[in-house]
Amino acid sequence: MSSFFLIFLLCIAMATAAPLRPGFYMETCPEAESVVQQVMKKALIRDPRSIASVMRFQFHDCFVNGCDASLLLDDTATMLGEKDALSNINSLRSFEVIDEAKEALERVCPAVVSCADIIIIAARDAVALTGGPFWEVRLGRLDSLSAKQEDSNQIMPSPRSNASSLIDLFQNYNLSVKDLVALSGSHSIGQARCFSVMFRLYNQSGTGRPDPAIEPKYREKLDRLCPSNVDQNVTGDLDATPRIFDNQYFKDLVAGRGFLNSDQTLFTFTKTRKFVELFSKDQSEFFKAFVTGMLKMGDLQRDQPGEIRRNCRAVNGRHMNILWES
């Protein structure tokens, strides 16, 4: 990563955009958070995996130019968006849940609640509805006027990432080692594709052998789920309780049963291991640290023109953009 790009990332972390605050829509759209929550409840019943996917939108949106819903923009003739970036293509799903929330909000209070704020509310609700903590979210974001696939490709980590590189990435956003480990606990719910684990099973670090950090019986389970000739879009659980937000994820890492390399490395690396061990023993400490990390990540902003999109997949008409830029 170039020094110029690192400076750019720090500018995002330290941007002096409009202050975010709880209850931002209390006067303009008092039902905003309850509307999103009802949509999330329906999504949980319809497809439990979907809300885990929606929770991850906050990570993939906020790390790339701040929390501005740039992730949600579809490609246009003149813009390659972030949905097909390396870390997102064939991985992120359930964009229709955000569409449903936006449509419901437009019926209640049109052109008031930003798509960027919907992501933040929905991520919180995904955690709370599956047994995790509830917290007051800080709101008041604007939606970006563009997206850039290249930025996502440069920033977002891969499933092969090790703890050292993840620490460096998070530090660029003023997120601590503890924040990194706690936020990795988002993998307490949901699934991932065989594509993300094949190298661990059959060619770790180019050795032609499996990752020795994988517990043998768990490796046998993964071998059955993801044989070498498998359709790599087959999915496996990220921990032993994939529909419950709890600290089982950390217990699994201690036992050598992390699905992704970027997960298991948190236990094998000295600087992160102590937090994995702490959270595996104390769920309340994990919940507390997770909320702190989500709030800090949600505060990432970049000073740039914005708008309240009427459709989260596309910017509004040019006349609306001019109003926000002036």
From TrEMBL:
Marked site: Transition state stabilizer: 56
UniProt keywords, alphabetically: Calcium, Disulfide bond, Glycoprotein, Heme, Hydrogen peroxide, Iron, Metal-binding, Oxidoreductase, Peroxidase, Secreted, Signal
Pfam families, per the entry: peroxidase
Principal EC category: oxidoreductase
Keyword Iron set for record: yes
Cofactor: how bound: Binds 1 heme b (iron(II)-protoporphyrin IX) group per subunit.
GO cellular component terms, semicolon-separated: extracellular region
One GO term of the biological process aspect: hydrogen peroxide catabolic process
Signal peptide annotation: 1-17
GO MF term (any one): lactoperoxidase activity
Residues annotated to bind substrate: 157
Disulfide pairings: 29-109, 62-67, 115-312, 194-226
Binding-site residues, heme b: 187
Name of the protein in question: peroxidase
UniProt source species: Carya illinoinensis
